[in-house]
Amino acid sequence: MNFSITILGSGAALPTFSRNPSSQYIECNNRHILIDCGEGTQMQMRKFGVKFQRISHILISHLHGDHFFGLAGLLSTMHLLGRDKGITIYGPQGLEQIIRSQLEIGGTKLDFGITFITLDGKSSQLIFEDKLIEIHTFPLKHRVPTNGFLIKEKTKEYNLLGDLFKQDGLSIKFIQKFKNGEDVVDENGKTHYFKDYTTPPPPTRSYAYCSDTIYYENIIPSISNVDLLYHEATFTELHKQRAKATFHSTAIDAAKIAIKANVKKLLLGHISSRFENGDEHLKEAKTVFDNTIVVEDGNNFEV
Amino acid sequence: MNFSITILGSGAALPTFSRNPSSQYIECNNRHILIDCGEGTQMQMRKFGVKFQRISHILISHLHGDHFFGLAGLLSTMHLLGRDKGITIYGPQGLEQIIRSQLEIGGTKLDFGITFITLDGKSSQLIFEDKLIEIHTFPLKHRVPTNGFLIKEKTKEYNLLGDLFKQDGLSIKFIQKFKNGEDVVDENGKTHYFKDYTTPPPPTRSYAYCSDTIYYENIIPSISNVDLLYHEATFTELHKQRAKATFHSTAIDAAKIAIKANVKKLLLGHISSRFENGDEHLKEAKTVFDNTIVVEDGNNFEV
């Protein structure tokens, strides 16, 4: 099953020629999720071939403009393109009011429903689950209430060894139990062990998004062992005082979190407009955590 | 003196690869004005080399998102770039509240002042003048209160014939009077006629912006004889019922207005995303008014 991240905007507050404000598109087991929606996100989606109407969940980390000023426009466009399927938007207190006001003031009545779910930004919690994925939120530490997000696959089923199962002539009623990792006692009182008829399920994959935040070790339990971590790295060491003052991270801050959380791979983004490229970020981060990439708009990563 | 229009967005409600939502940058006698500010306007300004901080006036025609969803982002960016010079924003009732809410919710306190001036959209009026330019507004007819704008140069001074003036040994106190087109009586009671010492001032130039609107002849007195008219032409004749139903214009509607208002040149914009290019608009408009151009993002026109 697919699990991929498309970077729609990798810049910080000031957009540049090459970096739009924050936004990412996540496909996970045929669920379609947008994280953050800075100005111009809908144009980036068009540019990078993201289908608007597939998105069912939008997660807004915080209410700085570079993370949500594109949301009203995106919703308008979804409406104009004929959307009738509802959408769920998660974000901080105040988001619903501002978005509804922006739409109402122009007389726009959407043909689809929006369910707004307010995140208090104070504790880690499971905010969505179905049979294939889970979405969790956890608090980051920024100048305003800010949420990180963790998207992970649900634990998968054990793989049935079909030939062996058939050969032993077991009842098909056992199949789902074995897939669930349960042993079965048959009508004669004999125990059949799931481990004899299955191989372990493939590992579940997970992705975490942390932007914007100062260096904040409290997030580590929430993101431990993820396959892929996106962590903001607005600054390099040269501006580490500025990073602290504005509650942002340096590349090294992000790399330290990555190594302490034992993640497999680190993506750096939210790069300040003062940098022409991410070379210095990459160099610095790699001194701490080697498997690091500085993302560019349009990049696509498989989890 | 300069008088030019840069098209930042020539599209309608749905942005396309080549057309951003509505916005234009006007330079007129060293005044710097933005008309409308759809999502992505700040990126377009950067792309087309428009200097953010020069802008002193922003005119918002109406509160459909494709005409103002870029405003909060632009103001944030002006702030982050260190602006301290105030700005004046003209627009319909409700604009101030929505923009201030968008900024306040993220804790943004601008380092510059915004003066919001509410346009009632009901009558033509002079909304700004200084010694070099005037800005007028006039009602368009759309689904929500909508304003057209007329920017024109102030009547200029008569050109003094310096050599003749000097040769006749007149007092320098007469100069400004002659430039103003006034005759002067000297201390001996003799009248000196300004026409003898001047040539007429160069003609004043003017530009009118009409978007969005249904075909609406009431605007003609406000835009008569302008050098350059931008008129929306969302649709072609094929969709003229749709144009009427949505209070938009066809290319022929725009051309009829242009000819009845005796303008010199017509620019067509606000082209629906359903058209791959403006060829059909141009063909149709030219059957009525020949001096027509369908604009593209990035086009620059001298008035």
What portion of residues of chain A is helical? Answer: 10-25%
CATH architecture annotation of the largest domain in chain A: 4-Layer Sandwich
| Assembly classification | homodimer
Strand order of the largest sheet of chain A: 6-5-4-3-2-1-18
Describe the structure.
The structure is a homodimer of 303-residue chains. Chain A contains 11 helices and 18 strands. Chain A is α/β, with parallel strands linked by helices and 303 residues long. Chain A folds into 2 domains: 3-156 and 202-302, Ribonuclease Z/Hydroxyacylglutathione hydrolase-like (Metallo-beta-lactamase, Chain A, 4-Layer Sandwich), CATH 3.60.15; 159-199, no CATH class. Chain A has a 7-stranded mixed β-sheet. Chain A has a 7-stranded mixed β-sheet with strand order 7-8-9-14-15-16-17, with helices on one face. In chain A, α10 (251-260) packs parallel to α11 (279-286). The model of chain A has no long low-confidence stretch (mean pLDDT 96). At the A-B interface, α1, α3 and α4 of A face α1, α3 and α4 of B.
